[in-house]
Design brief:
185 residues, mainly alpha, Arp2/3 complex 21 kDa subunit ARPC3, 2 strands, 74% helix, globular
């Protein structure tokens, strides 16, 4: 017997658990791979982390902003703990701070824009704005005052995040068109 998320009888509580697990895997992987630069403009983490916005947006669409914030808060705790084990403490702190602020912002923007009849506007606009905030906070906290070329890495990272946000529209569309997740009221 599944417990339903309060206020959203169509979405089981398991959606929150799956969202938290997805966030933990994505953020921990990104925090490990951000330590490996590709060049002066990119790290491997740039390709992983933006997928977290897809998770947030799908949760928001299916469960609404209240349950999605639960995913964000719990994902924050789990991801910071795992990142502290597998990355440096500075990266864990930077990641946690940037994640929390950017994901909560993404939830608010997506929810505001979801009334828009254009299906791609909420995920693309919310991810683009939240990615800018995430990038500035993460790279500023993680690498300012070090020998790491963090400004160029932040610029490269943000442009990759925009590209991934565009690419993530495809799985978002597939999920909403296939009705794999119901839309919350």
């Amino acid at each position: 017997m599944s417990t339903m998320v309060p206020g959203h009888s169509t979405m089981p509580r398991q959606g929150v658990v799956l969202g938290v697990l997805a966030m933990a895997v994505i953020v921990t992987t990104a925090n490990i791979t951000v330590q490996y630069p590709i060049n002066d403009w990119l790290t491997w983490g740039a390709f992983t982390y933006p997928v977290s916005f897809l998770v947030t947006d799908l949760c928001n669409r299916a469960m609404g902003p209240r349950s999605t914030r639960q995913v964000v808060y719990a994902g924050f705790v789990v991801a910071v703990a795992l990142s502290a084990l597998f990355a440096t403490p500075r990266i864990a702190i930077a990641s946690g701070s940037a994640f929390l602020v950017a994901q909560v912002l993404d939830v608010q923007i997506f929810d505001h824009l979801r009334r828009n009849r254009v299906w791609w506007a909420p995920p693309l606009i919310s991810s683009s704005i939240a990615s800018a905030v995430d990038t500035a906070l993460f790279f500023g906290v993680a690498f300012a005052g070090t020998a790491v070329p963090w400004v160029t890495l932040a610029i490269g990272d943000y442009f990759v995040k925009l590209g991934v946000a565009l690419l993530m529209l495809l799985p978002f569309l597939v999920v909403i068109r296939s009705r794999m997740l119901p839309a919350s009221p």
